[in-house]
Design goal:
By secondary structure, the chain is mainly beta. It has no helices and 5 strands. The N and C termini lie far apart (38 Å).
Length: 79
């Protein structure tokens, strides 16, 4: 089974080094019995000079059921 997210979102920076964000959209599940579902991902993170780290909860909801995972991402900035 695979997963293709189609998400759009926004981030708010209450301070230079901290952000809160949310993404919403549609998630397409691939494989046998392929289907799609409402997809969402709230997140929080740290925005440093050279790195950005975010933690997000990604959920796919359809017909009262949810498939979800907790994710951690890190970005190195070349500036």
């Amino acid at each position: 089974m695979g997963y293709i997210p189609i998400l759009a979102g926004v981030r708010v920076y209450p301070s230079t080094n901290f952000f809160i964000g949310a993404k919403v959209g549609y998630g397409i599940l691939t494989g046998d019995g392929s289907t799609g579902a409402f997809n969402y991902e709230p997140q929080i993170g740290y925005n440093g000079t050279k790195i950005q780290v975010a933690v997000g909860y990604n959920g796919l909801s359809k017909d009262g059921g949810t498939l979800s995972h907790l994710g951690l991402s890190a970005i190195y900035k070349f500036n």
